[in-house]
Amino acid sequence: MSNRDKAQMNSMKQFEIPTSKIMAYMAGQLGGYSMLRFTKRDLYNYVHSQQRARILDRDAATTISYLEGKANADLMSVTRYTTTADNRLGNLFWVDSIMKSNYELFGDVLAFDATYHGNKYKKPLDEEVRTYRWVLLNLLDVMGQRTPNLVVTDGDKAMRTAIAEVMPSAKHRLCAWHLEKNCVQRVKEAEFWKVFKKAIYANFDVDEFERYWRTSIESLSLGQNTWVQLTYDIKESWATAYLRGRFYAGYRTTSRCEGINSFIKVFLKSTDSILELVHSLDRVVKDYPVFREVKKQIKGVATLLFQGRESISTTIVYSFSKMGRPDRVCKVLYDPNDQKIECECKMWDSDGIPCSHIFCVMKYEGMEEIPETLIFRHWCKIAKDCTTLKMGNDSREHARLLQYSALYSSLTHVVTLGCEEVEDFAFAQDAISDLNIKFNMYATFFIY
């Protein structure tokens, strides 16, 4: 990278031009990316080094050095940050290869928790559109522009604006827990609290929801309540009736973020420095116990009543009602030729989990195993196994990311175990050396 290139980069950064745009602009000047004398990584490394040199906070500078140093061991790790007018650390964003792989596999739903507790620096998450926009733009840039299907937030207006600007195709869902809390604070009619909770969670279709809401509001004389009116106006972002059929992996609240926060507290203290925070977060892993919900749906079969069975061409239509609710009939379509089962309740489409109606059809059809069409890979133990993924012709980069992450994770585990004892270290070192020799021999054979 020449001094002229560096000077031009410095000038463009002074005008707050994004680093990714600088690359494109300079390539356009020279007639194409192939004419550039530096790579994308060279550009980001230079910009980060200039920013780091201006940061006065020693802890922040040390943290950035640590994160950027991780790239020597993990080539897919990325660190982004901003500085304030007085040369302090503003925003910090980082991912490693495992995070990128997980997002590639499970990035359908994004839950954003903007709440915070006091920390060593008494610094909150700056809830401004500009800050949220910066976070989301960096997320998309690092994750290959993959947009989630759904974003769940606590209802912060700035975040809502940023989502609409940066991720217009993503559905924004408001956290049900925060809505219930606001309801109790804004509406003093206790009976409405129950009505509102049912309006949020009940698996109504749109017409049922509208009838239920209208009847309830009229009976409680809340038609003139400002909060009730304003909340109804944004019903598409919280009522399950308007979200049915859109996959959201069971996320109705940001409480799973709270659960992760609770788990993380074991590793963190409010007096931790930024570097200590980063070190601790590198060690945190959390899994989702999805099979509890599957078990719940299987048990729910006992509460269903068979209402009828009819055949339409090659499709069999089952009808079920729930005990105590004979007026609510749910239809399930079953095609025995391809073992495909679809239910009106849309739980499979939204949660990726078969509902009790589908399990009931399986029972009547004598199925002893769940059909492959109803096994959602996200919930399987092999979800991260890149050897079992079905890749298209254009998925080479996708496969490379997953394979890199899998190998990096495995080798990290080997390194952790291998440094415990002298004998373990010698064994691990010999095994890795043998592996290197084999790969070098294979590479030489492939070239010639």
From TrEMBL:
Entry GO MF terms: zinc ion binding
Keyword list, A-Z: Metal-binding, Zinc, Zinc-finger
A Pfam cross-reference name: SWIM
UniProt keyword annotation of Repressor present: no
UniProt KW Transmembrane keyword: no
Segment forming the signal sequence: none
InterPro entries given in the database record: MULE_transposase_dom, Znf_PMZ, Znf_SWIM
Domain SWIM-type: 328-366
PROSITE patterns assigned: ZF_SWIM (PS50966)
Protein name: SWIM-type domain-containing protein
